[in-house]
Amino acid sequence: MTSSFDADRQQLQQLAIEYANAIDAREWDRLDRVFTPDAWIDYTAMGGIAGSYPEVKAWLPRSLRFFKSYMHFVGNFHCEIDGDRARGQVACFNPMVVPGLLPGLPRTVAFGVWYEDDYRRTAEGWRIARRGERKCYALNEPLWMKLGVWFYRRFGSRAA
Question: What are the SnoaL-like domain coordinates in residue numbering (predicted)?
Fold first, then answer.
């Protein structure tokens, strides 16, 4: 027999997997089953944006179109459940294929990131109400990506 805690933990782990699979499949509407409508997402640690779920959902296909392929492999899931709220951390290994300096010679970069989440139980089940990122490492990161992160952090939305 599965305890309520075990069932909740399993649902929260499945939420992390659903997020990874939705992003990797580029099926953006699947994220509606992952985030609360009022969720706050902060991807700035990896050079992305911070904003409301609708803002980030609209930004994702625009920003990820530059990558030929990518994969989010999640694990080391940890959560602390308190009634209808929970906090958690998920490790993510994220290799991504980017254009190389020479046409036809792509480059694979790999990132290690910790997702730091706040969860909320809703009528539809557990959802992420807040997601932040903490960068662990980058392997084979091209200079243009580093410059893009620096530029965004320095000038943000003023550059648009």
Answer: 8-131
Split into its structural domains, the chain has a count of 1
- Rounded-to-integer distance, Cα 149 and Cα 156, Å: 10
What is the predicted pLDDT for the residue at 149?
66
Q: What is the mean pLDDT of residues 2-31?
A: 94
Give the CA count within 13 Å in the CB-facing half-sphere of 85: 5
What pTM did the predictor assign? Answer: 0.88
Task: Report the run of H or E that residue 34 belongs to, with start and end.
Answer: none
Handedness of CA 20, 128, 133, 143 (dihedral sign): positive
Question: What SS3 state is found at 135?
Answer: strand
CA angle centred on 116, ends 114 and 122, rounded to 5°:
135
As a whole number of angstroms, the distance between CA 158 and CA 155 comes to 6
Confidence of residue 160 (pLDDT cuts 50, 70, 90): very low
d(CA 92, CA 75): 7
Query: pLDDT of 102-157, one tens digit each?
Result: 888 888 999 999 999 999 999 999 999 999 999 999 999 877 777 766 666 677 65
CATH code, domain carrying 128: 3.10.450.50
Domain that holds residue 35: 4-159
